[in-house]
């Protein structure tokens, strides 16, 4: 089940007047990762100050009880529900022109499966479900949000994973997932590894020295052989295989290939240092510091107080880590950019759907202004375009239904 703290996110507050005026009408669009839909929360500026995201806690009280047709709710200044709306005009969901598989030439050799063939078993996190097909369980990763950056990240990740050579420390790619009507690419699956991540692992289970060795070897392979920078190595993206007892890395949506998408302060060597520090000390306060404001000296120059079972002394871990860091400081960026086996793939194709014009508004003379490109789902539907719908019942309702059927 999705962590309640991760279930919702707000797109911010829109004020229809001065935000300083407490009676100014305010709209807040909140995305629900559980039901995969956008709900507008309406009230006043008194209840919804800028950037405080009060709307999330308010919607959380009602979300599981709202009809699928509800597009907006209105609350009073105490956060109490006073109205609901099913008007389609209230729906600000963005349209995603998912690419037909026939146009995804860089994915042409990948095995595929249709969405209808996947049976939902659990909702693991935002945009990740546990599903099954043909008696095997896999993790299904998808992007239901129309944000251009997220669309690009999803395209990059499925291309990268599908082209990575098999590696004992990387969760294997499985299939491309297509929607059933027009065979458009809506996500991908990877092998499912049970047991949870190192972020929620049993602290009494010893963290093994060989796992650090495996992780540093993997980072060298990604950075120096393939020219890939993961950029999000952390305990939450690391697993231990219950059968092989090897550490596994997953979640490549922030990864960079060469210079493209490189971010300040997110290099993998630094991430390994902070990851090991967090695992050993259980001190997570550095995770609250923006990556661009962090450097490894913050943890390298202090004592590490062990709050986790280890199979070796802390000094052994730190000695190995320091020696590895030294091997990576010589011509670090040059070696990364000149990786001999760099992975390449085609850019994300422009969705043909975005070439369909729609009415953006009118000139002073009353003439229609026509626009192409990105659009809301409401506009796409008005233009007769095909829209894949992600909406689903809340998991709590499904669990309750399953319980009563037993």
UniProtKB/TrEMBL annotation:
Keyword Lipid biosynthesis in annotation: no
Broad enzyme group: transferase
Keyword terms of this UniProt record: Chromosome, Telomere
Superkingdom as given in the UniProt entry: Eukaryota
Subcellular location: Chromosome, Telomere
Reaction equations catalysed: L-threonyl-[protein] + ATP = O-phospho-L-threonyl-[protein] + ADP + H(+); L-seryl-[protein] + ATP = O-phospho-L-seryl-[protein] + ADP + H(+)
First-listed, main subcellular location of the protein, grouped into a coarse class: nucleus
GO MF annotations, alphabetized: ATP binding; protein serine/threonine kinase activity
Residues covered by the Protein kinase domain: 115-406
InterPro entries for the chain: Kinase-like_dom_sf, Prot_kinase_dom, Tyr_kinase_AS
Annotated EC: 2.7.11.1
Cellular component terms per the entry's GO annotation: chromosome, telomeric region
Protein's job: Component of the EKC/KEOPS complex that is required for the formation of a threonylcarbamoyl group on adenosine at position 37 (t(6)A37) in tRNAs that read codons beginning with adenine. The complex is probably involved in the transfer of the threonylcarbamoyl moiety of threonylcarbamoyl-AMP (TC-AMP) to the N6 group of A37. BUD32 has ATPase activity in the context of the EKC/KEOPS complex and likely plays a supporting role to the catalytic subunit KAE1. The EKC/KEOPS complex also promotes both telomere uncapping and telomere elongation.
Complex and partners: Component of the EKC/KEOPS complex composed of at least BUD32, CGI121, GON7, KAE1 and PCC1; the whole complex dimerizes.
Protein name as annotated: EKC/KEOPS complex subunit BUD32
